[in-house]
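Narrative summary of target 7.
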Amino acid sequence: MKTVIGISLGSSARNFEFSTRFLGESLHVQRLGTDGSLAKASKLVKTWDKRADAIGLGVLKDSYKAGSHRFVDKDSAKLKSVAHKAPVTMGGPLGDILQEWALRHTQVALGHYFNNARVLFFSGLKNYKLAMSMAEYTSNLQFADPLTQLAVPKLLTSLQALQLYASGAHYVKDWSLPSALSSGPVKEWTRFLLRKAMQKASVIVAPVHELDEFGLEELAGKTIITSTVSDERLASFAAKGVHLVIDGAPVLHGHSLGPDLLDAMICAASGKAPEDIMEDDYLEIITGLQLEPRILYPNGFKRVNRFAFVIHPLSQEYFKKVKPIDLLSQVSPPVMMNSLEKIMAYAPPFVYSHVSGIQSPTGVEAEGWLISVGGTPKEIMRHSPEFTYRRLLDAAATAQRLGAQIMGLGAFTKVVGDAGVTVAKRSPLPITTGNSYSASGALWAAHDALMRLNLLPKPRGKERIQFKAMVVGATGAIGSVCARLIAKVAQEVYLVSPETAKLLALKESILRETPDAQLFLSAKADKDIAEMDMIVTATSGAGKKVLDIMQVKPGCVITDVARPLDLPASEVAKRPDVLVIESGEIQLPGEHIRMKNIGLPKGVAYACLAETIVLALEGRFENFTVGRAIEWEKVREIYKLGLKHGMKLAAISGVNGPFSDEDIAQVRKLALAARKKSQVSRTKLPKVAPTEIRKRPRAPRRLTVDATQQV
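Modeled conformation, tokenized:
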């Protein structure tokens, strides 16, 4: 039986030994810790040199390469020189393979886990290959080498900076701090800066023993990439609130083996010297033994994905809610406020609110940032699209630095120019406009309102509920999708738009998807508006009058998804017997959601924001909804994903806020009274023989109990 000895500078409390059959050879494996003593490690190497078939030296690396520069560790070289007979290895090449594999394995297994993560390396020089791999997923990298090596209060923030540091590191690699500086205030200051960097990071790469001195404040919520995590250390990580531990060291016989000890086992079993073991040998051994990195959750499954969402002021009133602009707005006359509005359009983006507490039933959480750009709709429309593109790209850069993995565009920022296409091409982050969920939310809210009003004729037997619907602005991005989906359930659908050629093309497209749909086209809404049970208005009229609410049937449900609204409060007030709702409000999942006021009840978000959050929860970091052509399949998909992650339709809201059950009951009461009055008026008119009856043969259709499932 061959003997393999692992000598580690780590704790002797973790010593172990076992016998195994490995690569066809019987091995006795023993790990010996020296509690940080190089002298003791040297003595053990000398003792086992003639008795062991291979020796692994843990914690240290014999050499490492950063860029074009190669560094040799003097302590490692000194320990290796003590041995004359037994092959000695520190497992450097194998360790690099295992760590990089652990990173890539996690990225695949957990789905885009490291996308734009904020990663802190205690040493970039000693983990250069891992840093190169991590850079494929995120540019948010920090390296603490100057801080930990030289006590210089500086973190490197890119691979290029690390390479530049490496080019001069050979001048200082053997230099150590004078004793007067290696303790006391200087040491405390460097540890303070390192702790601050750890708090801001979401992923920390460090040797496991170097994390022992840090606690809950630095490690809570973090992902740790390390090696040889024992059960005791895993329990310690659990107490410190660590979310995830990625351990590149495989486990054999219940023990986590460092690359030095595993490499020594390979040397002993194969009879090869460490320098003679090639990459193909490692590949054959790793696959043959079916070794795999460990993904460990110290406190149970935990994952937090990150998003950003762009908002902007809808009017000058917004400036009164933002400090310190608030003070200026209070003392400024209207003329000055107009100037302030113009100036703020050029202001750099800033974080309006941090959002936390969003928790999906799947266990995944989301946190994010609402990033404000300064332009009001008036200023956005006054400038060229390129002006707004630059503001949005500045916001994307801010979101990237914060660690966001996807960014959504809100309000007017998603309709400027080509509706997000250019921004998505130039942005460092995936982009979505939220229009898919806005369309879904429109139909979701309209269906809920129809059911709660309970004014549609009751179906007989298995017949479907029949109703007529109109989409005003049907050729627009959201309007066209609403039209496609309503056509699948409504008795008749009236498509309204001044773009006649687009209307004709839209009708042809819908009939390919839903051949039995009954579609009627018009350039103006007033022609058939009096017959409608449901109206969806989704124009870009920017305040222009698009329909006459006085002609609408009592009890009609109008869903206004236009921004700004097609029906201002003054128009809505004329018809208390009509239910006018603003679509898009979604109740976010989570009992303790924290977010600054955006004009909605606590925990409620507009559908465009909710779409960004749903994609974050699902880990779909991709350009989902961009451009003016929305795919109805994506509308249905985002609706289903929303249900999966606990999204609910919030209380139906109108221009004056959420409707209570009493409010809806009052609309129903007034609608019934108006309809009764209208019937009485018609019975008093002389009967006239109808000149023509327009026949529209069609199989009965029914609006299912949950019509949104059709979405």
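The CA atoms of residues 63 and 201 lie 28 Å apart.
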